[in-house]
Amino acid sequence: MTEITAEPHDAPAAPRASDADLRRVADFMRLWRLCDQTRCRRARSCHGAPRACLTRLSPLIPEKAREFVVGLFMARECDRPFEEVEGLLWEEKQAFDAWLAALEAAKGRPRNSEGDRHPEVPERSEGLEG
């Protein structure tokens, strides 16, 4: 039985990214801040399985921010200058910058039940009267 795919059969298969490339993507998106592995948070870098990490944590990243990262790394593969890509992906870059700002603002906030830090977790004192 022939498997049905969404892509035409003559389309070249996308190369499978190496763990090193995926680790760079995970580090660029600062996923170590959300990782449940202590070694990653301490090193401030992905030191686990980047493919599994990206699969598990990328849904937490806003879609436009993910699009910026994918576009940036694809452009890098094609030797396109960052400034050109940044101009084409302006809205996505704004979303990515907002993502990084939310991560920075979330430093030291409580973890959810899985042990991950999330930008949307409110400060403990928010909403409490003095």
Helix amount: 40-55%
Question: How many β strands by DSSP?
Answer: 0
Which regions are unreliable across 5 or more consecutive residues at pLDDT < 50?
1-14, 119-130
Order of helices and strands: HHHHHH
Individual helix count: 6
From the spread of the alpha carbons, the general shape counts as: globular
What count of domains describes the coordinates? 2
Mean pLDDT: 75
CA-atom Rg in angstroms:
18 Å
Our estimate of the beta-strand percent is under 5%
Largest sheet: none
- Straight-line N-to-C gap: 68 Å
Structural class: mainly alpha
Explain what the structure shows.
The structure is a single chain. It contains 6 helices and no strands. It has helices spanning 19-28, 38-43, 50-57, 63-77, 82-88, 90-105. The longest helix has 16 residues, at 90-105. The termini are far apart. Residues 1-14 and 119-130 have low confidence and may be disordered.
